[in-house]
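User: Predict the complex with guanosine-5'-diphosphate.
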Amino acid sequence: MAAIATPPGVGAIGIVRLSGAKSWEIAQLCVQRAIKEERKMFYGNFYDSDGNVIDEVIFAGFKAPRSYTGEDMVEVYCHGGVLITQKILEEFLRKGARLAKNGEFTRRAFLNGKIDLIKAESVLQIIEAKSEESLKLAIDNLKGKLSGEITGVRKALIDVLSKIEVSIDYGDDIDVPREEIFNDISNVEKFLSEKLSHANRGIHVSTGVTLAIVGKPNVGKSTLLNRLLVEDRAIVTDIPGTTRDVIKGEIKIKGIHFVISDTAGIRHTDDIVEKIGIEKAIREASQADVLIFLLDSTTGFTQEDEYILQIIKESNFIPVWNKIDKIENVDSISKISQTDNDVFVSAASGYGLRDLEDKLIEKVKPLITDGHLSHITSKRQLEHLHLVNESVKRALKSLNENYPLDIVSIDIRNALSELDKLLGRNFTEDLLDNIFANFCVGK
Ligand code: GDP
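Assistant: Here is the predicted structure with guanosine-5'-diphosphate placed in the model:
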């Protein structure tokens, strides 16, 4: 397989990569000479099939398993032009390579046992890192921080399982005290609970804080999103119910990375398409870390707002009164929060935006700064670790209640199976598709 590894556009250097058993053969045909040594750079011409020189290049060959993918590989460093890199790629394809899919180089590294799934995820996190802190977490994980801890837990559970099995099979001769088994499992539980209690901070630092703007149709949600993004990505119109899907963007406020979504206006409706958008909006709102509940100063608090308030009342929300430019006296608006939380803005003019940003920071600061920073950096990792810990807790409960050791062993096996999914020792193609779909081609 082959792909251009550098971003599309003009630059000093472009890199085209080949990976697979035939990569040396294909590359040698293109440079019309033998690659004499692995992991060494050579200078030469790159020829097309008619013998014309496409570019002067540097190239390097790597032999399995000492390469990024764990397979034979060749990298060609050419002049960084859109056409040059494209022509080199086409030449590779003409000579029998096929185009790589998103993240396929890293996927092969995983499938060839070069990295586990946590490290594969960290490759993407390094590429996407938007703060020093998230970059550091990702690099630590690529170096094996979280994988090492998880492998330690796995080893401890395998040791416990063997003690249990020995007791079950040879109980008459070798009887491992239940107390010893309990203590071993209890140590794992303490470690996992501690990790999990700090997990959210790692995820927020790595993937950003999620913010959803909710409100009835026409209250100014898209206008506010555009204001916040300082770019026109959301559709702004006068017809209520236009934002039928969820529109997302990313911003940084005082160093905190937010992923913002503008959702469909929530209201009672019989329109089937609009209903789907509203359901998505409600789902988005329920999953967001913080909500902007947008209200219209010109109408005051209406029944439609009450309907939305009932849906979001348990969430972390800020009431924000928009279109304040049309109001003569702000005191005429009856605030909905008892705690002076209401913010007044004009999305159209930008008035009040600083107050809103200050309030947002105040609301999300605890998510980012409280407690230790754990190296759990994705929801996938968090979900598996939760399930591991549940099984471990069940095992402790079974021991406490004097259940037979067979029952305890089932819980430990379940925990191990979940750990294997986390590390990628146990995986489905769908899971890999899901993870690697977010990578760029050539990585
Ligand atoms: P959405 O349906 O909630 O996304 O609302 P839009 O962002 O599409 O805005 C609906 C209408 O309100 C548009 O005509 C906007 O120009 C107008 N609008 C939005 N914000 C303001 C504001 O702060 N002041 C005024 N006067 N009009 C606004």
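The first strand starts at residue 2 and ends at 4.
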